[in-house]
Amino acid sequence: MECSNASADVVLNTESLGKIPIIAIMEHASIPWAIKDSESRIVYMNNAAVDFLNLPVGFDFEGRTDEELPHPCSEFAEEIRAQDRKAEASKEGTETIITSYFGRQGLLAPFYTPKFPLYDHEGNVIGTMLYQKKFELIHLCDFFRELSPSVITLNQPDSTFNEKELDILFYAMQRMDKKGIAQNLHLSLRTVEKRLKTLYNKLGINSLSALIEYGRQFGHNRYIPKKLLQSGVNFFW
């Protein structure tokens, strides 16, 4: 498609920005973009998103939820819907990593998916908007020895723990013993044992296996601290 110069004399300012349809931006994007309503029904997807999910040509996606899509991601619909609600409740939105079979070739790969609340003119949240970017695991490969379909969150599953405790719990969820946790966090074994004891007391448990079971129950097996991604993952268009 050739670009027209007809809009060259249009003054770009706050007022004119308010008149630019958001879909016009997404339509010209080469990465997947989508919009959902407050019940996670799909309102819009650009062509890149249709190809990304390998949807049949002419497939009517409007009004459908994730579980109604003919794509492997449908098995994660409940988790994806929970992330939609979290995005609506936060001005910062949410960030997830979804690993599944994407593109027309159906290749298994992880994709970074930020979601943002969508507002009407009165400031009411009416849904979510999201885009997806492929990323490569570098230093985190030790935590994903066997790549498999999954949804990973960068948002804390709950507010039970402080940052130091979350670090301990994260490495515990990788089935590391106390020595392995200490090495990865560059802490003494005594410090790790002390923090583990604090976690045990907080949860009313007394073993690493019980801590792992708690983590599974409350979604910590799908949580990655953002600082690890910042130091070990390259994001690219």
From TrEMBL:
Gene3D superfamilies: PAS domain, Winged helix-like DNA-binding domain superfamily/Winged helix DNA-binding domain. PROSITE patterns: HTH_LUXR_2 (PS50043). It holds the Pfam family PAS_4. GO terms for biological process: regulation of DNA-templated transcription. This is HTH luxR-type domain-containing protein. Residues 154-219 form the HTH luxR-type domain. One of its GO terms (molecular function) is DNA binding. Keywords: DNA-binding. SUPFAM superfamilies: C-terminal effector domain of the bipartite response regulators (SSF46894), PYP-like sensor domain (PAS domain) (SSF55785). SMART domains: HTH_LUXR.
